[in-house]
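Sharing a chain and its predicted structure for anyone who wants a worked example. Both blocks are below, sequence first, tokens second.
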Amino acid sequence: MSEKPQFNKIDGSLSAEGFRFGIVVSRFNSFITDRLLAAAVDALGRSGVQSNDVDVVHVPGSFELPLAAKKLAATGTYDALIAIGCILRGETSHYDYVCSETARGLQLAQMDSGLPIIFCVLTCDTLEQAVNRAGLKGGNKGFESGLAAIEMAQLSRKLRAAEVKQAPVELRRRK
């Protein structure tokens, strides 16, 4: 009979007390993004975040989310960011470009900064799909994104602490 391998489990929790969050939200399709924003803030608040520990930055559209997120990440004052937008398919290929470049830009901002940036950009074929994901039917993606931001902030903090513990003694003294 083989034994299960033992390992150290490092995961995030959903207590957000003492963390700071930034939210970048698109004004385009605000009838959807406002609902996502309210739900994300609700998730953060229910998890112990004080209102003065959440900053909200509005940008014109989803295409502008990556630059604003990258600049917020560069301040070094946040534990995680949430990018909120809503892109609805139209009659042209513009939708495809905005979707792919927004996703790519947010991923690059996250990887360049090392700060978790939660992707709460709805990319829907119809308005009905967007409304359903913003709380009308099966939950609200904004609330889910708030929870994901908390978990990733917790996890990032734990992983940073683990890095310090694993670093050679001479490197630990510098940090």
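Comments welcome. The chain has a mean pLDDT of 88.
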